[in-house]
Specification:
The chain is mainly beta. The protein folds into two domains: 1-39, no CATH class; 40-187, AOC barrel-like (Beta Barrel), CATH 2.40.480.10. The protein has two helices and nine strands. It has helices spanning 3-14, 25-35, and strands at residues 42-53, 61-66, 78-87, 96-106, 113-122, 131-139, 145-153, 160-171, 176-187. Strands 1-3-4-5-6-7-8-9 form an eight-stranded antiparallel β-barrel. The longest helix is centred in the N-terminal third of the chain and has 12 residues, at 3-14. It is elongated and about 55 Å long. The structure holds 2-acetamido-2-deoxy-beta-D-glucopyranose (4 copies). One 2-acetamido-2-deoxy-beta-D-glucopyranose binds next to loops.
Length: 188
């Protein structure tokens, strides 16, 4: 590598982490045509805690629809839109590394099970500005739930992968739920 290139790369690292991936159509086509064919698929593992708060002044998830005014188990027909914090730990004050922005809806007549459709929008470190698209089946009373990563952007272009979730703690008074997520993705 030429000295100038090395200097430029060091400069980019020095000015604070991730370079924003160019998103204009020409850059994306260039990436597809020249970078992708010379790339090997990478495996990235992520670990974070998904904090969902559905009441109170710190709420980040809001009911937008429900089937009727008196929901009873399995709570079929509730729809919430959320902009939930993704944190490094299960504690409320732990560092935020991204947001889960999307919709969850109870969609099973048999048990409490959510249809999850979320953008995981990372805001820290090397993944800052990159996203993963999460879509899946989340029967919340099960110990482990497995959901699909169906795509991504930025660092995670063409991602596919698997998210596993388990509930760490919840408070039914404050409707504060914390789930631990392990995500493994293939991307270029
Ligand atoms: C809201 O969050 C702040 C900061 O984390 C915390 O001190 C406060 O207790 C929370 N309020 C409620 C109602 O949970
Ligand atoms: C509300 O929906 C639940 C779940 O389907 C049902 O069990 C209940 O009877 C409904 N209540 C009313 C008032 O329609
Ligand atoms: C993430 O990227 C945004 C936009 O480029 C920038 O303003 C912000 O400071 C970055 N955050 C971190 C923690 O690097
Ligand atoms: C739930 O939160 C409320 C309000 O902060 C608190 O009084 C209660 O002890 C909590 N319950 C549990 C089981 O932690």
């Amino acid at each position: 590598m030429e000295k100038l290139t090395i200097f430029f790369m060091l400069y980019l690292i020095a000015i604070g982490g991730a370079m924003d991936t160019p998103k204009d159509p020409q850059s994306v086509q260039n990436w597809f045509a020249t970078i992708l064919p010379n790339s090997v698929e990478k495996v990235t593992k992520l670990h974070f805690f998904f904090h969902d708060i559905a009441t109170g002044k710190n709420a980040t998830a809001f009911n937008v629809a429900q089937i009727n005014s008196s929901l009873q188990p399995p709570y079929f027909g509730l729809v919430r839109v959320a902009d939930d914090a993704l944190r490094v730990a299960s504690t409320p004050e732990s560092k935020i590394i991204g947001r889960a922005q999307g919709i969850y809806a109870t969609a099973s007549l048999e048990e409490t099970a959510f249809l999850m459709t979320f953008n995981l929008v990372f805001t820290d470190g090397e993944y800052n500005g990159s996203t993963l698209s999460l879509h899946g089946y989340n029967p919340s009373a099960h110990k482990f739930r497995e959901m699909a990563i169906v795509g991504g952007s930025g660092v995670f272009r063409l991602a596919r992968g698997i998210a596993t979730a388990r509930t760490v703690w919840f408070n039914l008074t404050t409707l504060y739920f914390v789930m631990e997520y392990h995500v493994v993705v293939l991307h270029y």
